[in-house]
Specification:
There is one protein chain. It is built from 5 helices and 6 strands. By secondary structure, it is of the alpha+beta class. The chain has a 4-stranded antiparallel sheet with strand order 2-5-1-6. A two-stranded antiparallel sheet has the order 3-4. β3 and β4 form a beta hairpin.
Amino acid sequence: MANKVIYAVYDDPEQLKDGARKLVSAGVKVKDVFSPFPIHGIDPIIGVTRTRLGIVSFMFGIAGTALAVLGIWYFNIFDWPMNIGGKPSFHYYQNVPAFIPVTFEFTVLCAAHGMAITYLIRNKTLPGMPARNPDPRSTDDKFIIEVRTADNHGHNSEAIAELLRQSPVTEINERQC
């Protein structure tokens, strides 16, 4: 049995959600959805798991805080201690309040940049990478559901297409993969 990819094209996001509900209620796994803008409420319908991007951001923030503390200690205490108002800086803990803004800003900088880079890597949308969009119309005014027969062992392509025809789909395209 050849593996096929089925693309169902809709004109409206609500029609796409209805089609996705029919597929999922029949036990068909939806691989992905392509749309010109985010569709609110589609994630629980097609079973998208919760992202761990917040955890990654927290880890990059902790790394940023550690780098900031290490850098401040090295540059301002160890390598070139500053003598401000006759009070030399020989200990980091005595000067922590002066370094809080720098530490905070470096934490936010590392968390934001690390999260953005992780997002681009996970979505495979780094600059220069080829687009994974199956139909260029999904960037304009069409909404597309992608279903793979390899993910749905209990359903063949004809049964999935028949389920899709029960929804207000405009066209159904099949490709070999």
